[in-house]
Amino acid sequence: MLEGKAVIGEADMLKTMQQDALDLASKALDFFDVTDATEIARFIKKEFDRLYGSGWQCIVGTDFGSFVTHCHGCFIYFCIESLAILLFKGSSAPESEANQLAALEAARA
Q: Which GO BP terms sit in this record (predicted)?
């Protein structure tokens, strides 16, 4: 496991999904070197696609800016030591998609 503690900067996501994101980031850092941002992002994205349906995007790095549109309830930005991770499901989709995601989360619990 990673020594450093994750610090959430912004989140529009259920607490259970936030914890999944933090756990997956920690797991990715067990598998990949901290400098291998692309592999870390790929790992987290694919796992969120598997857990919560396709369409997730993940950006990992030490210095980046962003401005994204995300589905309601599908956004988290957090840091682990010097590494920043942005995970979101991008969309301008109607609110019904967020309700569908909440139903998936409820079924998973």
A: microtubule-based process
Helix (H) or strand (E) segment spanning residue 54: none
Check: CB of residue 30 under 8 Å from CB of residue 2. Answer: yes
On the CB side of 33, how many CA atoms lie within 13 Å of its CA? 2
The Cα 88–Cα 44 span in angstroms is 11
* DSSP E strand stretches across the chain: 6-13, 56-61, 70-80, 83-90
- Could you identify the residue written with the tokens 């569908």? 100
Joined together, the tokens standing for residue 2 give 């990673």
Report the alpha-carbon angle 2-60-7, nearest 5: 50
pLDDT band at 90 (very low <50, low <70, confident <90, very high): confident
Answer for the pair 57, 77: CB distance below 8 angstroms, yes or no. Answer: no
